[in-house]
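Section 5: illustrative case.
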């Protein structure tokens, strides 16, 4: 009895070894149908730009930039090969005032004792007050020179700007 089980085990091991050796290799995925290939090509054609987005437009191509916001760079010449641009020049008071005014939010006016107050960035100001504005290059202090109906005049040193609200 022991002998038969040994032979049977040996026979079973041989059959399994031959079966695994002769088993066909699993092929890759089946070939795609023509319709599926057509759909895949159409998807690739439509979404190719999403995989490789176009380069960002330059600042000079932006139609919404104000004139003079970006200084023109000199053309490289043989005498003046493309030199690195110098550090940004110190802007004038008017440019700084324009940048500061762009950050302000005027929300209303009110009268206290016959004097008109203007609410700018959620704080009340009257004529003669100084308001503090934070810009990327530092803090700027603007003076409220005059408040008129729907107008406020702000100054920075000698630069002056009237803002409608």
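Designed sequence:
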């Amino acid at each position: 009895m022991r002998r038969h089980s040994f032979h049977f085990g040996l026979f079973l091991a041989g059959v399994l070894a031959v079966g695994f050796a002769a088993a066909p290799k699993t092929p890759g995925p089946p070939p795609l149908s023509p319709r599926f290939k057509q759909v895949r090509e159409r998807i690739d054609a439509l979404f190719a730009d999403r995989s490789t987005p176009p380069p960002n437009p330059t600042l000079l191509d932006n139609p919404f930039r104000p004139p003079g916001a970006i200084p023109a760079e000199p053309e490289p010449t043989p005498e003046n090969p493309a030199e690195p641009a110098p550090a940004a020049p110190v802007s004038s008071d008017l440019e700084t005032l324009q940048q500061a005014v762009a950050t302000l939010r005027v929300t209303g006016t009110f009268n206290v004792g016959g004097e008109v107050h203007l609410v700018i960035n959620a704080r009340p100001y009257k004529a003669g007050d100084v308001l503090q504005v934070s810009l990327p290059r530092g803090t700027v202090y603007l003076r409220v020179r005059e408040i008129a109906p729907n107008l406020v005049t702000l100054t920075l040193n000698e630069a002056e700007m009237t803002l409608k609200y």
